[in-house]
Amino acid sequence: MAGIASDNLQPFISRLASHSSLSGEDRQALSRLPTRAVQVAAHRDFVRLGERVDHCCFILEGLAARFGQSSAGERQFSAFHIAGDMADLHSLVLPNPTSGIQALTTSTELMVPHSALRAVAKASSGLAEALWRECSIDAAILAQWVVNVGRRDARTRMAHLLCEMAVRYGAPGDQSCAYVLPVTQMHLADATALTAVHVNRTLKVLREDGLVTVTGKAVQVHDWAGLTTVADFDPSYLRAVPPSVLQSRAPARPMGALERVH
Amino acid sequence: MAGIASDNLQPFISRLASHSSLSGEDRQALSRLPTRAVQVAAHRDFVRLGERVDHCCFILEGLAARFGQSSAGERQFSAFHIAGDMADLHSLVLPNPTSGIQALTTSTELMVPHSALRAVAKASSGLAEALWRECSIDAAILAQWVVNVGRRDARTRMAHLLCEMAVRYGAPGDQSCAYVLPVTQMHLADATALTAVHVNRTLKVLREDGLVTVTGKAVQVHDWAGLTTVADFDPSYLRAVPPSVLQSRAPARPMGALERVH
DNA sequence: CGCGGTGTTGATACATTTCAAAATTTGTGG
DNA sequence: CCACAAATTTTGAAATGTATCAACACCGCG
To answer: Does B245 have pLDDT greater than 50?
Structure first.
């Protein structure tokens, strides 16, 4: 105990290791990070606009959503954060939040002080890069959300979201699969930029097509292939290709010359 | 010349310095970065899916857009990149693109090898942090795009985009202001997730309201206050608060205890 | 001078929203 | 374990914002 609850950060270390190469020292440093476990009640905004933060929140258990809102008060989620995510890793470099984060269910979080994270990042450039990469994966997902919300109709959009979450939960996408997603249809509306009513109708269609059943507690995918087809889903944006950290060869052309590319 | 075209990166150095504290050595290292100037033709996708990149593209002049597309072939922009932006800084940590980037106008870019950037980031943790922060600002803008596309009607959405670009161009937002934005209405449609026809009608309304006039070349804001009101625009997401790098004080409670927050 | 890309406008179609009410589930205290 | 209140899901009917289709005007450019 005494100031250290390190073991719990293990999933985060594994996550980083899945896309970046960490030295033994890096892992050690991470596992020694001081953390403070906090129970967060459902519906609570644990990151709020205008409130500078000095720690990152690792979600040990539960579900959270990053959101913005229009002046009309309508919420729009820009990300779901599931167990194993460091929900606001970006706050390490931007401590003044530009989006709020809300716990959708009662959650357990590990708060990691910025000072400690900054220290380990300063001590190891490899670790700093791993954190930056983790952050950038979030951003890549964000870019997909823009496409999803902007250019797909309700059915496709919902299907795409359900596919994304299936992959992120590591639900085996063989034929059928299932995962726990404790959200109301209003939450799904906030994520897909639809109304709750239309979410309901859209889920009904997907269910009647034999693709997927969504309850307030879990998602049952009956036809993974069919769902991904409907969803126009390509999971490659979710995985960073592990670093075959080959040194890039010297550029073919000398630097400094202006050239034209058509 | 001889392999170095460093002076041109000056705007990038200033940009980093505007939100992060760089040491003299950091600035030196940046200004010594090898670059290759490239002329990119309008409409050319200079970052494409499936083509791993080994350099970052700094936009010296011109306009570019990051985009994704649905299988139906419909494009959706997730960012505009203007002169002074490092369009794909994130590629340094994620060299396999998950979004394409297209030049909207004939542009001049400075290509900076990943190897060189990685070297300077490795040598200076402060510089690495500055790059990460720059990247995270892009992500914060991305999150706002989700809200904009998801929860605002056409008029508000377009107004918001025009406000964002005004601030990013540094156009003085006193009363009226103007900036160069060489885009077609189709480009605006790709950015706002509307159709080109509806963009046309929406711009007409904004013009008739005396708020702003948009031609294919430039944006003339007639009533900044009115436009920001209509747009539901708050510019704070565009600026990272400069680092008053105070050490965060030690946490009030001992680490390791589980507590509850309501 | 004509041609392709762009901007403009109108008429119509349609996906989604809005409003409203009932059915169902969930949570909670007795 | 029940009873009740609150939240959520479900369904219908009507309204609406935006898309679609189509035609024409404009402009820069070869």
So the answer is: no
Mind listing the pLDDT tens digit for each residue in B112-162? 999 999 999 999 999 999 999 999 999 999 999 999 999 999 999 999 999
Q: How many CA atoms lie within 13 A of B219 on its CB side?
A: 32
Q: Best of B18, B20, B98, B137 to disrupt the A interface by mutation (most A CBs within 10 Å)?
A: B98
Name which of A168, A113, A120 is nearest A140 in CA terms. Answer: A168
Packing angle, helices A154-168 and A196-208, rounded to 10 = 80
Q: Please, which pLDDT band fits residue B246 given cuts at 50, 70 and 90?
A: very low
Nearest protein residue to nucleotide C25, judged by CA and C1' positions: A216
Residue of A110, A232, A120, A208 whose CA lies nearest to B69: A232
Interface of A with B in 173-232 (CB under 8 A): 193, 232
Distance, in Å, from the CA atom of B25 to the CA atom of B123, rounded to the nearest integer, reads 10
Q: How far apart are CA A83 and CA A68, in angstroms?
A: 21
Q: Are B103 and B46 in contact (CB under 8 A)?
A: yes
Instruction: List, as one string, the DSSP characters of B188-233.
Output: HHHHHTS-HHHHHHHHHHHHHTTSEEE-SSEEEES-HHHHHHHHT-
Q: Distance between alpha carbon B85 and the CA centroid of its chain, in Å?
A: 6
Measure CA A41 to chain center: 20
Q: Is the pLDDT confidence value at B256 over 80?
A: no
Q: Which residue has the tokens 């990038």?
A: B12
Structure tokens at A194: 């639809």
Amino acid at B20: S
Angle between helices A125-151 and A114-123 (to 10 degrees): 120
- CB of A35 less than 8 A from some CB of B: yes
| Nucleotides of chain C touched by protein CB (<7 A) | 5-11, 15-20, 25-26
Closest in A78, A95, A259 to B147, CB measured: A78
pTM equals 0.92
CA-nearest of B161, B257, B236, B145 to A108 is B257
Task: Using a 7 Å CB cutoff, list residues 173-212 of B near strand D.
Answer: 193-195, 197-198
